[in-house]
Amino acid sequence: MALSYDIQPTRYLIGSGSAASTLTASYSGNTKTVNVGGMSQLVLGVVYTPAENGRIISIKVEVSFDGTNWLYLTTEDRNGGVITIHLREPENFTGATMATVYPFTRSYPIAHKAARISIKENGTDTFGTVIVSYMSSGK
Question: Taking the model in full, what pTM does it have?
């Protein structure tokens, strides 16, 4: 039996289809919270355009059971019958060439009330732009 979802809303989270958001060196300028209660999958669609060569964006995804207390997602390694759990650190993407549009997606399993997505860019002065959309999937 194939996996199917009854509900898959898609929305813009940061920026919009016609207007990108300018990044900063801090997460605080580009942080949004989405209600994902009842969903099991969160997919981010990111369109990043660096303003300088070699810039790096960091994407941080946190989850919450109550919309107030935020938790990191985790990853795990299995070695010799032992599972080691690690905090899922912010994920980095490098935009090699300035003014080039880099579209990509990232998927996250979720079973929480809310997710908080934050994005920033390294650098000190000239920052690139980003549009982030999301789709959450559930029954």
Answer: 0.86
